[in-house]
Amino acid sequence: MTTQLSTPNPAKDRDRPDAVRPSKPPRSRARLLILPTIVLLVLALGYPVGWQLVTSFQEFGLKQQFGQAPEFVGFANYVELLSDANFWVVLGRSLLFCLLAASFTVLLGFLLALLMKRVHKSVRLILQIALLLAWAMPVVASMTVWVWLVDWRRGLLNWVLVKLGVDAQGHNWLADPVTFFITALVIVVWASVPFVALSIFAGLTQISEEMLEAAAMDGATGWQRTRHIILPVIAPVLSIVMLLQLIWDLRVFTQIKLLQDAGGVANETHLLGTYIYQAGVGSGSFGIASAVSILMLLITVGISWYYVRSLMKEEH
Fold first, then answer.
1. Where do the segments described as Disordered lie (predicted)?
2. Contact, 294 vs 56, CB < 8 A?
């Protein structure tokens, strides 16, 4: 006597009235799970942004800091700001600076990542430790060293140039806006390259060595392998680090402010960060400073919108 074993039929079992179906979590439960995150975001970001937005429509100066009620002025702060030729100069200067800084940072980070990929393991470890130490150094501490390097009285840069026969004794590199921003560009790129290099190196580790070796056997040059294999694979990493650098370099403040205090001409070297500081803390016009902050936020959203839209398409 043989026993026949029935083969399970998922389609037939699904039609049975007594079939047990996997239950889906209700939407209300999912919303409850993300509610704490939303509350934290609103508290951490919503209130400061909301305060800035409200203040940008008010006359908020020194009198308001001593208890006088702020006066609602509508778009008067924005009209005054957009009518100021100096603001447009600062805005153009800031956009150019962040574009140059982000481009040089990603380029140097990419080259360093390729170098770490090709050197021996011990050399790569030394490079990674050096990059981490540079990245982890506090900004104020590193700026103390940089200010000493370019100091016009006892700086190392002028001393080395004099030893090489260049007449640089007593030359103030921070007094000229061009050399001021070249110095600031070097400092900002130096501080940002480690993060970009390590991020891109992590992306390079995902590329198959067999694929690169096969391309080399087929006659592909190093540039061709980089262009047609490496760059397409790490394109998402490059796009996110480029976006982050644009955002960070647009709102750079500490390096510019400390260089201004070390000998730079503030009125000729303002970026958006120091311009907001000068308008608010320096002049007491917190309404104008808030208006600049909101415009800066809109520019940041505009820069990041393309990448956010790409992420939304990938999710769908």
1. 1-26
2. yes
